[in-house]
Specification:
Keywords: Hydrolase
EC number: 3.1.3.-
GO biological process, one term: DNA repair
Strand content: 5-15%
Structural class: alpha/beta
Distance between the termini: 16 Å
Radius of gyration: 17 Å
GO molecular function, one term: phosphoglycolate phosphatase activity
Number of strands: 8
Pfam family, one: HAD_2
Oligomer: single chain
CATH topology of the largest domain: Rossmann fold
Amino acid sequence: MALHAVVFDIDGTLLDSVDLHAAAWAEAFAHFGIAVEARAVRGQIGKGGDELMPVFVPAERLARQGAEIEAYRSDLFKRDYLARVKPFPGVRALFERIRAEGLTPALASSGKRDEVEHYQEILGIADLVAVATSADDADRSKPHPDIFTAVLEKLGSPPPGTVVAVGDTPYDAEAAGKAGIATVGVLCGGFPEADLSAAGCIAIYRDPQDLLDGFDASPLAKSRIPGP
């Protein structure tokens, strides 16, 4: 059975933004008197706020102020950090190759819908993306499968083994795997290769450009990909 679609994470996979998100979270926590270093937050980037905040905020306070903290972080990131994010090399060319192969490119991000829409403009791929899902389409963010389940629904529920994900974190691979999707890992988000392999990635590349350069030998070019 032929491959049908390729579903991409955004932050750390297509966009060089992980350090900026970590810094914004650390600054937001500090604003509320919660001392957390950016390097500690960095290892949690890839999760949505609903999964990230409980790592650093006590449950009682999270119930009381969680929405306020996340809203502050969101506004802070847009105001002070968003202008500094940039695409990794090869993103548009990779999407063009995927289109040329007759595959459907899609996005599945733990970010908010407005962020995902803006990121497509920054990446220069808005005209190439067929389907996009965000945290707004799911009850729970990664590493839960909800975002990938939503993207599969938007893709028309393709048969198992016809969709592959591309992501930079173990949370991507875990979430995709729970939805029955195998994951190709990329190292540009900063997670060690061993962590991506342990999470079940079927192949690992440096970044989008490396995946493009090795496309013909990658799972994206095979008639059927291994299961997660």
